[in-house]
Amino acid sequence: LGGPTARGGGPTSAEQRARSNEAIDYFVSQGRTPEQAAGIVGSLRQESGFNPLAGQGTAHQGIAQWDDERRALIEAHFQKSLMVMSYKEQLAAIEWELHQPKMKDTNAALNAATTTVQSSYAITHGYESPGSYITEDPLRAANSERALKEHAEPGPRAGPVDGKDGTINVTVTPVPGHSVSVKSSGPAFGAPATGVSMPGVGP
């Protein structure tokens, strides 16, 4: 809507990649294809850099830079201020909004899209309203291609979001006389696990 404004020390490049991947995973879980999800994500990178606090105190806020009217509808539905909604809650707000009557044509265009370029066009022209389509169309399409490519590569699937440090706490209660083995299922936050500390647990 309003473009990238007032990001206020937003996510680092590594966090942006993690949030890009997280967003694609989320929209795919809602029935979107990876290409359609990437079309949404390309605009989010351009609008806010995936910062849920982007534009705080201005006319356009959040990861999609919602204006006052659309923000009020979202806040009424989710029963909380946009600025206290988590990153994933704001992703859910996008999916919810796309299913509202005013977004019927946009959602249909997105559902019909088979490439990232088509998906990006549907979102840029139907969901967002950038100042210049001539300038923004190629930028957002490139963002979408990048998002899909990075999503297919090994890397972070979720990063430090909303002030959390990414620490994973695991509680294991062993059965007496049995050993416990714990291993990671893959890289976490773009780096492999370096060790597991489990005092008192062993063969």
Number of strands: 0
Helix content: 40-55%
Radius of gyration: 19 Å
Helix tally equals 7
Largest sheet: none
Element order, helices and strands?
A: HHHHHHH
pLDDT < 50 runs, ≥5 residues: 2-8, 159-174, 180-203
Outline of this structure?
The chain is mainly α and 203 residues long.
Explain this structure.
With 203 residues, the protein is an all-alpha fold. The chain is built from seven helices and no strands. Helix 5 packs antiparallel against helix 6 and helix 6 packs across helix 7. It is globular. The N terminus and C terminus are likely disordered.
Notable characteristics:
203 residues, mainly alpha, 7 helices, disordered N terminus
Give the SSE layout.
Blueprint: H1 13-29, H2 34-48, H3 68-78, H4 87-98, H5 104-112, H6 116-126, H7 133-152
Helix pairs in contact: 1-2, 1-4, 1-7, 2-6, 2-7, 5-6, 6-7
